[in-house]
Design goal:
The structure holds 2 protein chains of 2 kinds. By secondary structure, chain A is α/β, with parallel strands linked by helices. Chain A has one domain: Rossmann fold. Chain A has 4 helices and 8 strands; from the N terminus they run βαβαββαβββαβ. A 5-stranded parallel β-sheet of chain A has the order 3-2-4-5-6, sandwiched between helices. In chain A, strands 1-8-7 form a 3-stranded antiparallel β-sheet. The termini of chain B are close together. In chain B, β3, α4 (111-117) and β4 form a beta-alpha-beta unit. Chain B has 2 domains: 8-134 and 290-306, Rossmann fold (3-Layer(aba) Sandwich), CATH 3.40.50.1370; 136-286, 3-Layer(aba) Sandwich (Rossmann fold). Classes of the chains: A alpha/beta, B alpha/beta.
């Protein structure tokens, strides 16, 4: 088991991502930051908080559960649903920042794009992830990446966050 | 969770809470402008109704359609069932058409269990009311409605005082509710004339009262049951007027109930018999909301039974195995 990011690394990465999001979107006027539960939701809350500190005003944020939109539903037992909280005003004509912890096959993000499509038509959708571990199975890419971590398929990337795991760290398990 | 939903006894406490939690998330979708999820795309759900029904059939149909399943409605009238086709042949037909789930209502208690146990079909069987036995999804939507109003922060219904009033003897709704609400920690009182209580009711985990006035002021939920006129030929009470005076929810009794209490009825109502019009339409009545919640709860049941991996064809039905919940 290898520790690839510690608390300081994660905080710095999120702070950089927050700045990049503001830079790319020329401010935060039109942003809606949506996290994919479970850990993406905590990360999105942190990113939204950092953006609002930098910009000096509050940011619309929420969570987006994608369970019902997964394409692998039939390959496993049904999972409990997680909360979807869309900020008042919806996502119509906004710039949506999707936030997730680990970017892997891209299937979660495909499902998230479908879920967004049911909610409205955003002006744009951008993707921020803490870790990009490669092995995409779909033509999807991230706009903001905390850290690129080359992995083998057999390895497991674990993100621990203080909100539920007690501390911040990113670990790689398995034959390195 | 088991593969079929035939009785509340098929659900563990955790299963029941999971269904209510899932329904709570799905209820939010019903408020969204687009009410459609792709989850059950390509799955076929058959509504097999041997008995008349408005809200249960429509509710299951709406639930299945919101999850993008294909729905086939099959009612006894106008099908080969009225020509005397057996349940077995009907089941084999449905199997041949590739039904992933069969929602069955039948006037004989145990018909859904027979459909599930005989291995005529590989799909899930969901009981939508069988004879005087059970109506599990009605109990689930009642529990959902009660939890939403009276225990919004809790998992279950611990300490909620529920009075179930009326024809308990013939009521599959009452039977499923006694099992489910009891499982979730509610304190249940059955209120009925002795002739309308089933044999052995003293062994049920409930209290019994023989008049509505005794319990009305202390109830958190007053659940009225329909007097099933089609089953009243044996004169279980002297007259409808006398029944209504003793057990009906009228204007006077409505004034005695707690301000926070809920008035519930599974429908269809006999206005003026078991429930007066002003009680049915009062602010405390959640009767119309029960219908709305029914769709969310049935979506949850369909998702949890059908959303995951299909069991291997010919899987042993008896085991009704737990699929990782």
């Amino acid at each position: 088991m290898t520790n690839v990011m510690n608390e300081g690394d994660i905080t710095r990465a999120l702070r950089r991502i927050a700045h990049e999001i503001i830079e790319r979107n020329r401010g935060s006027e039109n942003l809606v930051v949506l996290g994919i539960p479970t850990r993406g939701a905590f990360l999105s809350a942190r990113v939204a908080e950092l953006i609002s500190q930098i910009e000096g005003k509050s940011i619309r944020r929420g969570t987006l559960d994608i369970t019902m939109f997964r394409d692998d539903l039939r390959m496993r037992a049904p999972k409990p649903l997680l909360p979807t909280e869309i900020p008042p005003g919806g996502i119509e004509n906004t710039d949506v920042i999707l936030v997730d912890d680990v970017f892997f096959s891209g299937r979660t993000i495909r499902a998230a794009l479908d879920a967004l499509g049911e909610l409205g038509r955003p002006n744009s959708v951008q993707l921020a992830v803490l870790v990009d571990r490669g092995h995409r199975e779909l033509p999807i890419r991230a706009d903001f990446v905390g850290k690129n971590i080359p992995t083998s398929r057999e390895e497991i990337v674990k993100v621990h966050l203080a909100e539920i795991d007690g501390l911040d760290e990113v670990l790689i398990e398995g034959n390195a | 969770m088991k593969r079929h939903l035939l009785s509340i006894n098929d659900l563990t406490y955790d299963d029941a809470v999971l269904i209510l939690d899932t329904a709570a998330e799905l209820a939010k979708i019903s408020d969204a402008p687009v009410k459609k999820l792709p989850t059950l795309r390509g799955r076929t759900v058959v509504n097999l109704f041997f008995e008349d029904s408005t809200r249960t059939r429509i509710s299951f149909e709406a639930a299945a359609k919101r999850l993008s399943a294909d729905v086939i409605n099959f009612s006894a009238k106008g099908s080969s069932l009225s020509k005397g086709e057996s349940l077995k042949d009907t089941a084999l037909t449905l199997q041949a058409m590739g039904a992933d789930a069969v929602i069955i209502r039948h006037n004989a208690s145990g018909a859904p269990a027979r459909l599930a146990d005989q291995q005529w079909m590989t799909g899930s069987v969901i009981n939508a009311g069988d004879g005087t036995h059970e109506h599990p999804t009605q109990a689930l939507l009642d529990a959902f409605t009660i939890r939403k109003h009276l225990r919004p922060e809790n998992k279950d219904l611990t300490g909620v005082k529920v009075s179930i009033v009326g024809d308990v003897l013939h009521s599959r709704v009452a039977r499923s509710n006694v099992l489910l609400l009891g499982k979730l920690g509610a304190e249940i009182t059955l209120v009925a004339p002795p002739t309308l209580l089933p044999v052995g009711v003293e062994k049920w985990p409930v209290k019994i009262a023989f008049g509505l006035d005794a319990v009305i002021a202390d109830s958190d939920v007053v659940m009225m049951l329909r007097i099933q006129r089609e089953r009243m030929a044996e004169l279980f009470f002297p007259s409808e007027r006398e029944y209504s005076r003793q057990f009906g929810l009228n204007s006077d009794r409505l004034r005695k109930i707690k301000p926070t209490a809920l008035v519930m009825h599974p429908g269809p109502m006999n206005r003026g018999l078991e429930i007066s019009a002003d009680s049915a339409d009062s602010l405390q009545s959640v009767i119309v909301e029960q219908v709305t919640n029914g769709v969310s709860v049935r979506m949850a049941v369909l998702y949890l039974l059908l959303g995951g991996a299909p069991l291997a064809a010919g899987a042993n039905v008896e085991s009704n195995e737990k699929v990782g919940m």
